[in-house]
Amino acid sequence: MLTDITIGQYFPGTSVIHRMDPRFKILSTLLFIITLFAGNSVWTLVIGGIFVCLMLALSRIPFGLIWKSIKPILPILVFTGILNLVFVGDDNVLWEWKFLKITMGGVHTSIFMIVRIVLLIVGSSLLTYTTSPILLTDAIESLMNPLKKVKFPVHEMAMMMSIALRFIPTLIEETDKIMSAQKARGATLDSGKMMDRIKALIPILVPLFVSAFRRAEELATAMECRCYRGGEGRTRLRQLRAEARDYVGFIISMLFMAASVAVNILL
Amino acid sequence: MSDMIEAKHLVFRYPAEIGEDGKPAAQNEPILKDVSLSIERGSFTAILGHNGSGKSTFAKHINAILLPEEGTVLVDGMDTRDESKLFDIRQKAGMVFQNPDNQIVATIVEEDVAFAPENLGVEPQEIRRRVDEALHTVGMYEYRNHAPSQLSGGQKQRVAIAGVIAMQPDCIVLDEPTAMLDPQGREEVIETIHRLNREQGITIVLITHYMEEAAQADRVVVIDGGKVVLDDVPAKVFSQVDRMKALGLDVPQVTELAWELRQAGYDISPEIITEDACLAALERLLQM
């Protein structure tokens, strides 16, 4: 049932990619996304493709998982493909019917866009597959640290993220319980018209919210009892420490991106 | 040396709720009316009382979650109203709550245990040492990389206790820590806190409504209507079966059995609180 939902999509492992400093992984991914969208040459995609394939091979993520991450966006891919096919055109007409016109340029653009989106999804899910949510939060906190200077609540945000992650399974379990309780009282949740189904959700959401607020209050008290006083003067059990291999990894990704940029300019 | 906890003439009432006209309604009845209690270092005290008696409210005064309206609470000689000592007090007197789900902060067991020392600004290596030690103490070391949602209620509550031990407190206040657990989880938790008391000399204040748990303490304090009404060793408290029933509380089953037998005219001690003592007494009775 509901408890089958997994949080994030972390796939535990011990590969080089898994062990890379999460901050560098985030930076590399960002860089990858930017170059992917900045480049207009086919070579950008070729280099990006080689990069992603290399990283996938290194991370030893099963192929099924990659397919799983692409599956939900298939409709978007098809939609993008058709749109580009129909609306982008040049003089080289391949096929024509009334107002529909398919040109060589359209075919090119549509393939280009599809490959670009696939690379984008596979590249970014590589980050979430190889990094646990807790490390991701730590890394985001660490990367955003400079923002503290402009009074951005970095620590508070990271704390909220990690508490949200912590409570997802608890609240899912709770929703399950409330649903069973309402069903036992004769509520029908999974049949009827759209409007009826939406209305049926109200008796589930109300108790869920009430209990979430109660939990929040208790948690706040428990945190205060354990001397929580915000991010100031706080130390961490797990220190993020960049090692030589992290720099090497980051330099390799930078080289790939640089190659992509160079190709764009030169060709 | 001063007592671990010393409450003197403690009075507390919850603030009145805001009425529909936007003004506070009439003042609430005080939930604590003149509670005076001192708890010795290294002791194991159980606090009993039916719902609404003020026992949880009292517990929240021990680490300055609530502040007294009148009277004082001293923890290791520090006044809970002294704001500059707030975190010293909270570090000295840790607190464990009823619902284990609502006091675990982190997504991984060891991260949660590290939460308090992280807040206290302890060095990372020292945090690591304390976390490992605390997890060993409660017998949860093998689970250090688990997610809290993968654990049973008793295990989660032991993690919560480890989270408090990692602060290295002198005293732990537990507010009905076993109320939401199954019998096995209950046993694990009670066994753990007794071990902490015995082996590390940590002062334990256990708020409970399980009489069997209270019977194992050094001292039982009964709170009713915001006042301390009984305060003695368990055998003496539970032997007053009439009084306990009048307060809306039970006594351990064996105590009740002995009491019934006594009412029926048998010569049996009223101060029986453990099954072993009851067995011995019954044996003697049958041989007579």
CATH architecture of the domain at 41-68 and 76-234 in chain B: 3-Layer(aba) Sandwich
CATH class of the domain at 41-68 and 76-234 in chain B: Alpha Beta
User: Structural class of the helices, strands and pairings of chain B?
Assistant: alpha/beta
Tell me the strand order in the biggest sheet of chain A.
1-2
Rg from Cα of chain B: 21 Å
Report the CATH topology name of the domain at 41-68 and 76-234 in chain B: Rossmann fold
Oligomeric state of the chains in view: heterodimer
Order of helices and strands of chain B: EEEHEEHEHHHEHEHEEHHHH
Arithmetic mean of pLDDT of chain A: 86
> What is the tally of helical segments of chain B?
11
Total beta strand runs of chain B: 10
Any overview of this molecule?
The complex is a heterodimer of chains A (267) and B (288). With 267 residues, chain A is mainly alpha-helical. Chain A folds into two domains: 2-146 and 240-266, no CATH class; 155-225, no CATH class. Helices cover 70% and strands 3% of the residues of chain A. A two-stranded antiparallel sheet of chain A has the order 1-2. In chain A, helix 3 (42-59) runs antiparallel to helix 10, helix 5 runs antiparallel to helix 6 (104-130) and helix 7 (133-144) runs antiparallel to helix 8 (154-184). The radius of gyration of chain A is 24 Å and the shape is flat. Chain B is α/β, with parallel strands linked by helices. Chain B has a domain at 41-68 and 76-234: Rossmann fold. Chain B is 39% helix and 19% strand. Chain B is built from eleven helices and ten strands. Chain B has helices at 55-62, 86-92, 109-119, 124-137, 153-165, 183-200, 211-215, 234-238, 241-246, 253-263, 275-287; strands at 5-12, 32-39, 44-48, 70-75, 78-79, 93-96, 171-175, 203-207, 219-224, 227-232. In chain B, the strands form two sheets. A six-stranded mixed sheet of chain B has the order 6-7-8-3-9-10, sandwiched between helices. A four-stranded antiparallel sheet of chain B has the order 2-1-4-5, with helices on one face. The radius of gyration of chain B is 21 Å and the shape is globular. The model of chain B has no long low-confidence stretch (mean pLDDT 90).
